Amino acid sequence: QVHLVQSGAEVRKPGASVTVSCKASGYTFSAYYIHWVRQAPGQGLEWMGRINPKSGGTYYSEKFQGRVTMTRDTSITTAYMELSTLRSDDTAFYFCARLIVSIQSFDFWGQGTLLTVSS
Amino acid sequence: EIVLTQSPGTLSLSPGERATLSCRASQSVTSSYLAWFQQKPGQAPRLLIYGVSSRATGIPDRFSGSGSGTDFTLTISRLEPEDFAVYFCQHYGSSLYTFGQGTTLEIK
């Protein structure tokens, strides 16, 4: 069965960086793009970008260009999302999700990682 | 970029009733890449409907999707207690993924 397991909650100060991991299992890691979506507490969903685990190619939302870096380690079937120059409004749950290209939507999601940015 | 607007913001209904949730796009959706998700507190979103009207694996047939152009609808024919949650629509186009702001379906 497919699982995406994310790293635990993080607390950072404004201006710092954070890296969230997403460990995939139960399927061929290189065959499905991994996307990152965030959700501020009590708010809606916001797409951040994606990585192609096979090639390492990335595509980011314009909003996060220059602040987000997505990488992967195929040897341990794990994707990473680094967000830098953190601000208080980056406080949110961060989800990784597997994309099904044929439907351009997300069939499996990680459990979410809460990032709190506070001085 | 297409903006998705969901209505109503909150829908108060009783178990057994029919729920109709709306998702309106700011421009006509020319592809069929319109999906619906359910999210319960403390959980990740769950894919319900993709391609406007196809149910995802394991989704009961009381959930149905419809629509075209700029107007899309998620219908839950007879509400079960476990259906009370937040629902999001999602679109893909021009390499971008957008979500509606959500509709909260609460017990009346």
Structural class of chain A: mainly beta
> How many individual helices of chain B?
0
Largest sheet of chain A: 7 strands, mixed
Number of strands of chain B: 10
* End-to-end gap of chain B: 36 Å
Order of helices and strands of chain B: EEEEEEEEEE
Oligomer: heterodimer
Low-confidence regions of chain A: none
Indicate the low-confidence ranges of chain B by residue numbers.
none
Percentage beta strand of chain B: over 45%
**Beginning-to-end CA distance, first to last residue of chain A:** 40 Å
Level of helix content of chain A?
Answer: under 10%
Class per helix and strand makeup of chain B:
mainly beta
Q: What's the total count of β strands of chain A?
A: 11
Approximate shape of chain A? globular
Average of pLDDT of chain A: 97
The biggest chain-chain interface is: A-B, 21 and 25 residues
Helicity level of chain B: under 10%
Please provide a written account of the structure:
- The complex is a heterodimer of chains A (119) and B (108).
- Chain A is built from no helices and eleven strands.
- Chain A is an all-beta fold and 119 residues long.
- In chain A, 0% of the residues lie in helices and 51% in strands.
- In chain A, strands 2, 4, 5, 6, 9, 10 and 11 form a seven-stranded mixed β-sheet that branches.
- By secondary structure, chain B is an all-beta fold.
- Chain B has no helices and ten strands.
- Chain B has strands at residues 4-7, 10-13, 19-29, 34-39, 46-50, 54-55, 63-76, 86-93, 96-99, 103-107.
- In chain B, strands 2, 4, 5, 6, 8, 9 and 10 form a seven-stranded mixed β-sheet that branches.
- In chain B, a hairpin with a 3-residue loop joins strand 5 (46-50) and strand 6 (54-55).
- The radius of gyration of chain B is 13 Å and the shape is globular.
- Chain A binds chain B through residues 35, 37, 43-47, 59, 61, 95, 97, 100, 103-107, 109-112, and chain B through 31, 33, 35, 37, 43-47, 50-51, 54, 56-57, 88, 90, 92, 95-102.
